[in-house]
Amino acid sequence: MKEMIYQTVCPGCNIGCGLYIRENEEGALTVDFMKSSSANLGKLCRFGMKLPHHYSKATSMVDGKEADIDAAVKAASDKLKGTRNVTMLAVGATTNEEHLGFTKIADALGTVVNTGIGAYEEIPSECHPSISQGIPLDDIENAGRIALFIDPYVQYPLLVRRLLAAKKNGATIVSLTCCDLNLADENVSINPADYKTELGLDSNSIIITDVNPHSDAEQVKNLLNLALVTGSKIMFMKPFVNSTGVHLLGKSAGQIGLHDIMDGINDGSIKTLVTLNSDLLELMPNTADAAETLEKLDDLVVITSIDGPVNEMATIVIATEPLYAKAGSFMNVEGQVLNNSGESTVGIDAMSTLSQNLGGEAFDFQAMHSKMMESVVRKFTAPKYSELECKVMETAAPAENSGNLISVYNPFMWCNQTDDNDFVIVNMNMVDKLGLQKGGMISLTSDAGSVNMRYTVRDIPDGLILTMKKLPVVTGNTTEVKAEAV
Amino acid sequence: MANVGDMVVGYATDENVRSRGASGGLVTAVLAAALEKGLVENVVVMKHINEFEAVPIITDNVEEVLASTGSLHSVPVNLAKYAVGRKVAMPAKPCDVQAVIEQGKREMIDLDNTYIVGLNCGGSMHPITTKKMLVEMYDIDPEDVIGEEIEKGKLIFKTKNGEEKAIAIDELEEAGFGRRESCRFCTLKIPVNADLACGNWGVIGDMAGNATFCQVMNEKGAKLLENAIEAGRIEVQPASDKAIAIRDKVNSVMEDLGSYLEKEIFPEIPDEERMQYYMDQMENCIDCGACKEVCPVCACGEDSKCTMFHSLVDNYKMSMYHLVRFMHLSDSCIACGQCSDVCPSDIPITLLQSRFSIPSQRRRNYQPGMNLDTPPFFEVMLK
Known about the structure:
The complex is a heterodimer.
Chain A: E1 4-9, E2 18-23, E3 29-33, H1 46-49, H2 51-54, E4 61-62, E5 65-66, H3 69-80, E6 86-89, H4 96-109, E7 113-114, H5 128-132, H6 137-140, E8 145-148, H7 160-168, E9 172-175, E10 186-187, H8 195-198, E11 205-210, H9 217-230, E12 233-237, H10 243-249, H11 258-266, E13 272-276, H12 280-283, H13 287-294, E14 299-304, E15 316-319, E16 329-331, E17 337-339, H14 346-357, H15 365-380, E18 405-407, H16 411-414, E19 423-426, H17 428-434, E20 441-446, E21 449-457, E22 465-467, E23 478-479, E24 482-485
Parallel strand pairs in A: 6-7, 6-13, 8-9, 8-11, 9-10, 11-12, 13-14, 14-15, 18-22, 19-21
Antiparallel strand pairs in A: 1-2, 2-3, 4-5, 4-15, 16-17, 18-23, 19-22, 20-21, 20-24
Chain B: E1 7-12, H1 15-20, H2 26-36, E2 42-50, E3 53-59, H3 62-67, E4 88-92, H4 94-105, E5 114-119, H5 127-138, E6 145-151, E7 154-159, E8 164-168, H6 169-174, H7 181-184, E9 196-199, E10 212-216, H8 219-230, E11 234-238, H9 241-265, H10 271-282, H11 290-294, H12 320-328, H13 338-342, H14 349-363
Parallel strand pairs in B: 2-4, 4-5, 5-9
Antiparallel strand pairs in B: 1-10, 1-11, 2-3, 6-7, 7-8, 9-10
């Protein structure tokens, strides 16, 4: 076999960084820089540079035993045929075409595909397109003032260069994140009720925040309101490569978030779950809790291209080709359709068979691609900011931090991928108070257990500890932990 | 019979290769002949992704080599990794050649088995910058471009409908477009460090646009050229004195421009401001490691002096990782600009590195990647 070169998109977030994956004769993968990609000019963040580690190939399984994909599809058909109340989840970690195929299966089962972001349920549907599709990335560089509610260095690193370019062009940047940002002109902590008066935003401003499965809907509404009352543009970053595509392609009515799905499993109302490239053990804050919940399912059918931890718990795994090898497209945060050069349709074909076996439509890649082109591309081929069409909403105060350990979600955390930067962030006062030693460890203990971590010191509010790594002691966005020197 | 020092003008005998090649297809034909006649087992060719980007691939298929003809200028790449453990021929810009030779010095590849056909280079352009420049400065749809050329200080684009538009490079660069920054202060324009130095400078008269000027730089180059002639893949004739003089003149103008721009690009930094200058430049590093990964002269591997410090836990605003690299690469850095190209925080790493490496190299009268005779001034023991 010759070396294969695939043009693809980084699955680490929704910026849509183009890259090449090279697969050599022995199947070893390396990443190469796609300099003609307008989203990133070939540049990649730490996650992108480590992508080969992410593409561990999945194996089809039936009841814990290896099977070929046809046997897995047949077993899934047998399990799902006639089953009522099947819940389906696809967060947007695969192509538009596969997502549409998955919705065909949902149609056959009389259900919808949930994309896992619960905040959508609580926000008027006329706001959804503006949440799904953001601002052309180039426009960030020409903003007058930018309010950051995310840490770009950690969460969406390819925004850093855009923000620095904006500063060079005269923008001022105000950060409202927990950690002082080097690139910000102002690092502030403001009560949400005072955002409008204190932040100085206007129609030449951009609010950059994110929406993810664990987002607080009240905070999302607050920021939408802020954009509405100040005339500022708003950009919702998202954690999955095709988050925008799946929200624009999917049916929003009747969707539930990840936490509702887990609650449904726990209270017994959800007995069968089918997922597409969505590993709940990785996506939920606490892996052990999530595993305990998933154990309660009668059937878990996993369709995936990755050898993730949830595969071992699944009744059936339908293993598809690696993401980079798939035929198909993604839509990035600015609304640009990005195509894979891969030509494999193993996943789509398997879903078509499954759909057909369940009494639904048969389809092929071309049909799904045409449907995507019709429903999405015509509207969004030239990325452009859509003005907000909703009205100012009633909001409650965003949820208070109920703990001192805060998870800063980032690609490594969403994918539960090993990161050599495995440390927590504390401030100097905590170092003094706990008597932490340089080069030493900090012990964190919560109801979920205990862990020893390296630490680094930054300017963050007193008493807080930030983690960019998924820790076994974490139980939610924030967790109350007892911290001690080791 | 080809000899070291020969200067010829030639073209591919295959009409198809000749017409599609940027300058008569000689380079493509030489590479194809090297593969065809068993001089090498593989050839590195630039696979077209689009009109503005090509990526290197390795092939043992003569037809694939012939089909690769007509590449536009692409940004520098790390070619040495394709030569590891192989008997290979490759086309390369001057800085690409320097990198390959530096890897040869560090015994990462065997230069006896690596045949390099060098290509003149007046500078390369980033694909996205080029597309923006075409729209904003040339009023050309990037999709319509079929070729580009640098001539008499102007950057010329040719379009599908046969039009040519030229704008002075100075004007483009003042507007923030044009060549990559590292290309602006580069003074190695003719790849005299390659086995063959090829390009269109000095191709005059009826041959202009349809042939390549080729200088044989060493015995391997003579073998490459002779092999292609014997295979019937190329026809050559001695370059005239006028052609040689014109080539020298173009080269001299480009070199002077590079030297002039170097002074503009590297203004003096007072001693007392240097620490703050580097801290400011480095403060947005996210420790992705791309600068090391892409570096074509780095031969250390994953476990190396700089990576000992590659962690955000200890260094953020002023990473020791970078300082170690500045020091360690000060003999071998060729200022190709790839580290700046891939930096997600747009840190001008090449410029920072060059502030270390250019003075160090000049003080020792050492230019990296020119030959195997001069050892690097750090650590490497040559057999």
